[in-house]
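Sample A.
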Amino acid sequence: MNGLKNVTSIIFPLITFPYVSKVLEVDYVGKYNFSYSVISYFILFAALGISTYAIREGSKHRNNKEKMYTFSNKIYDMYTVIDDFN
């Protein structure tokens, strides 16, 4: 599954970039790239905080299997959402 994701992340831009550059023109492609870079920084900072949060809060729930299960699902969902933006 990860290999398929990597292959599509390479092929998809090769197919869509010519179309997007024709539709958006040069000015709007630059605005898009700037917006994407700002969003990438926010995602980076969020990802750094999630690992610290997971360690700190996970240690609180280590003796209770039910709480640990729900907590680990919450952390997994956070990483899934962040990974979707990358």
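Sample B.
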Amino acid sequence: MAIVELTIVPLGTGSTSISNYVADCHKILMMEKELKYQLTPMGTIIEGDLNRILETIKKMHEIPFKKGAMRVSTSIKIDDRRDQEGSMQQKLQSVEAKL
């Protein structure tokens, strides 16, 4: 199972606010029942099958274009651990146990 951190930024929209774009991207995630996700103030974290996540990110990347953006910058960070099962919750618990 992979954990992916994602940030999608529309450019050239005429406004510094992007919350409408973020909300529309999250509507795509809400339809993906196989994926877990967490919205953060600076991006989104998605957990699940890597191929499914990447397919979903492609759909999300298109949302700002559909809303009129002429340029979109998408940053993706992938944690794909294969020696053991991991999750967002497990990663947090591991750090909290050491505090």
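B remarks: The two ends are 26 Å apart (CA to CA). DSSP finds three helices and four strands in the chain.
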